[in-house]
Amino acid sequence: MARSSSGVIVAALTAAALAGVGFLAFQAEAAPDKPHSSHAAGAGASAEAKGKDGAAGTGSGDGAGKDGGSGGQEQAAPPVPAGSGTGQRVVYALGQKRVWLVGADGKAAHSFEVAPSTVNPQPGSYAVTSRSATGTGSDGKAIEHVVRFHQNAAGVVFGFSAAVDGSLPDPASGKKTGAVRESPADGRAMWDFAVNGTKVVVVA
């Protein structure tokens, strides 16, 4: 009887132990789901945070890019050349192939690169002598916003203009011409700025 009771107790304890192990095994199997979910949420949050940081970083980079881009789109122009005079004027730097439209306050309102022809004017101070809304260039191209400022002893006329089709002078053409070609947009800016009599300063 004692042995029989003892056997029942052992069987009961064994059954309880097995049940406990089964429960623990079940918990162990179920447990990874929560950390995985948690981890996924954490990873998501972390990724989201990284995304935000990345976005902020990207935004910051874009901002820098935009600032630099402002410098890059408009390619922050070099300063107005020293020794180019004072007051309102057009400054044309031969070496830089660049023009500045300088206001009365001495600040450049606009600056852009140009494409000169085969003959350059001598450095010096000139003034706008005549203007034509449209015309034909020495290369046969239709041009617009022609602003002339000098004619040398050889009869070469120097002036700024823009080809309607946006083309540039051909330096290999062999023709002695003094056209300084601009883009259509820059030609418009020059036209609006350089009325007759406006000072044009040419520097080396």
Task: Please explain how this structure is put together.
The protein has 204 residues and is an alpha+beta fold. Helices cover 39% and strands 27% of the residues. It contains 3 helices and 10 strands. The strands form 2 sheets. A 5-stranded mixed beta sheet has the order 3-2-1-10-5, covered by helices on one side. Strands 4-9-8-7-6 form a 5-stranded mixed beta sheet. A hairpin with a 5-residue loop joins strand 7 (142-151) and strand 8 (157-163). The longest helix is centred in the N-terminal third of the chain and has 41 residues, at 33-73. The N and C termini lie far apart (123 Å). 22% of the residues are buried.
Low-confidence stretches: 1-5, 8-73
Largest sheet: 5 strands, mixed
Overall pLDDT level: 74
Structural class: alpha+beta
Cα-atom radius of gyration: 40 Å
Distance, first to last CA = 123 Å
Spatial strand arrangement across the major sheet: 3-2-1-10-5
**What's the quaternary structure here?**
single chain
Instruction: Enumerate how many helices there are, as a single number.
Output: 3
Number of strands: 10
Could you give the order of the helices and strands?
HHEEEEEEEEEHE
Helix content: 25-40%
- Note the beta-strand portion: 25-35%
**Shape type:** globular
